[in-house]
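job 3f2a | input accepted
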Amino acid sequence: MKIALLATDNREMSKRYDAPQPVFGTAPEALLQGFELLEGIEVHVVSCLRQPVNAPEKIGKNLWYHSLEVPKIGWMTTAYLGTVRAVRKKLREIDPDIVHGQGTERNCAMEAVLSGYPNVLTIHGNMAKLAKLYGARPFSFHWLTARLEEFALPRTSGVFCNSSYTESLVRPHAKKMWAVPNALRAPFFAPRTTGDRSNIPTIVNVGTITPLKKQLEILAIAEELHCEGHRVRFAFVGPSSAESEYGKSFFARIKVAEEKGYGAYLGTKSCAELIELFDRVDAMIHFSAEESFGLVAAEALARNLKFFGGAVGGIVDIATGVELAELHPVEETASVKRGIIGWLEKGAPKPTEAAAEIGRRYHPRVIAERHLEIYREVLKGR
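job 3f2a | predicted structure (382 res):
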């Protein structure tokens, strides 16, 4: 089977056109790792960028990469007309059996549904929901993206939904849906490292420092626990803008936490650095107000961390049935605080079987094999 995977090369997002290799999101990257483990398939990754980049012909034993240069006028201002035309031309050369658009956040969905080939889409984040959450103004980026998502969803053969929450949002618009969670990157299933662990229980939070991810609320919990005499530290990982009002507030609060010893900001981490950190800490707290899947939660559980999460979106699917995973209402910080106190009083235990359960659900091979089953179903139906 020949598959065309339309994915964003994040060198376009970061404007790092000089980077030597394509950079994909964590979910597409993990899926490609799974495809590389399978026989009898040929996967062609197609990405549009505004400037020329290094384009290795192959990025895996059965994975090809194609970068297409599209001028600025061909992007959002023309509803991605330029990227659609460029991708259609390349697909005529590749002649795939099926086209898979990765995400509705930018151009990939429009390229897939207008490709002229049998196609499916994956929803990584629901743009209509986010536009509503942000109060997007007419013709703003989030408003336009939501409109394009509404155009694309009914025009594809079916939609891969990474959680039951995503299914509930997509159901009114899609012809067909399949419940297919995101894959985790293969290194998260590697043997545990034996790095030094602190004698004080440490809880990590990973995510962009924004109101959506509620780091200030988590810091408030950390401060209360410290003032009440509980021995616990909170470590924050993720990009942040010190220029934003939320960023300024976060860095002011984290400075106090670092001075008093109950919190720290660790910046951003590579995949390897994140795994090494997970193997040195004891728990994760993830309290996003909106979450279609919650990949970082599954990654933490794959390293046998205790998990405290908000009962929202795909986090519910991930945490349900997993050893020592706790869910709390996102608006009730007192609830998660009580959960943390109870955990500390029990000696801050970590799960021993969570990683095995996460592997059964989200290993790259498992998710890639499910993709092939659906591709065959779509092609047979046509």
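job 3f2a | The mean pLDDT is 94.
job 3f2a | closed
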